[in-house]
């Protein structure tokens, strides 16, 4: 059996070493989780950025398509009206029937344009809803990176453990014939 003072010294060293090891482990865990959090947030931001760019491109395509459709409808209206006027003039027809046919072509064009622009409006609303979904998904990914606090060891606990161990050594050796 070793001297009580030596045993007490080892108890203090053991409690101190345990405290230092636990503290280093907690710090390493914190650094790891923080780095992982940063990487996850960066990855989520990249994903959202690419998704937003896809929506921007899709919106531009939808608008260009609608513009092209309306221009094609206008061209068809103008060609039909021109053919009707040439045909009427060649046949010697004038007046109300030519005006009525012209009005019918104009009404058809306005209806087609209105319908296409309404469809464009719906498509744009769907794209806006998709962008809101991307935002919600991005927020969820960011919030999912939040980690629970890391429990740091307390020097008070280490001191109490060392004190308790020293108390036990003292209690066990106080009446011992060799040390008592």
Task: Sum up the structure in keywords.
180 residues, mainly alpha, single chain, 0% strand, rod-shaped, 86% helix, 3 helices
What does this structure look like?
The chain is rod-shaped. The mean pLDDT is 86. Helix 1 (4-90) packs antiparallel against helix 2 (96-143). It has three helices and no strands. Helices cover 86% and strands 0% of the residues. By secondary structure, it is an all-alpha fold.
Per-chain topology:
Elements: H1 4-90, H2 96-143, H3 155-173
Instruction: Give helix and strand order, one letter per element, not per position.
Output: HHH
Individual helix count: 3
What level of helicity do the residues show?
over 70%
Secondary structure tally: strands: 0
* Overall morphology: rod-shaped
Main β-sheet, in a few words?
Answer: none
Strand-residue proportion: under 5%
The overall average pLDDT, rounded, is 86
Return residue spans where pLDDT drops below 50 for at least 5 consecutive residues. Answer: none
Measured between the Cα atoms of the first and last residue, the distance is 13 Å
Give the C-alpha Rg: 41 Å
Q: Based on helices, strands and strand pairing, what is the structural class? A: mainly alpha
